[in-house]
Amino acid sequence: MAFKVAIVGRPNVGKSTLFNRLVGRRIALVDDTPGVTRDRRVHPARLQNLRFDVIDTAGLEDAAAPTLEARMRTQTEIAIDEADLVIFMIDAKAGLVPDDQTFAEIVRRKGKPVVLVANKTDVRGAEAGVFDAWSLGLGEPVAVSSEHGNGMVELRDAIAAVA
Ligand code: GDP
Ligand code: MG
């Protein structure tokens, strides 16, 4: 059975962008049929020589539960339960917001190995956001740009250290 990596975090931090990069193509998050939404996507992925299955958690756009928070929480917990390792992503451009703490708390409670990723570091001023990420208590943040591909060697090394 392949090693499974779940990408977790609040909406809009860039989870799907990283997912698409890892699987090597764009995969739509929402089914074509109206009302049918696939909450989680598991797909074979590769990061240099490292192969694993990656799980994306859908966001805001797919909400069909009473509240977004409930929806996200459930998706996140199922994804983490299924995973051998969690990539917890924050948006270094935006800096930490209360929702990051909420999701970080879910991750911490599950007790799975975590790689903390600070995304969007291609944006000027993101260094402060990377530094803030330390305060989550999830270890050293790996600075990446999912959009441009920066930091993928460091991300590979961080995953390989656990896998
Ligand atoms: P998700 O909700 O966590 O899955 O986030 P998405 O992958 O849908 O990305 C949310 C927004 O952030 C989109 O507008 C992306 O283009 C943007 N984004 C994602 N990764 C990066 C990045 O590395 N740098 C910058 N500047 N923008 C990014
Ligand atoms: Mg997404």
Automatic annotation (TrEMBL):
Residues 3-163 form the EngA-type G domain. GTP 1 binds at residues 9-16, 56-60, 119-122. Belongs to the TRAFAC class TrmE-Era-EngA-EngB-Septin-like GTPase superfamily. EngA (Der) GTPase family. Associates with the 50S ribosomal subunit. GTPase that plays an essential role in the late steps of ribosome biogenesis. This is GTPase Der. The chain holds residues 1 to 163 of 473 of the full protein.
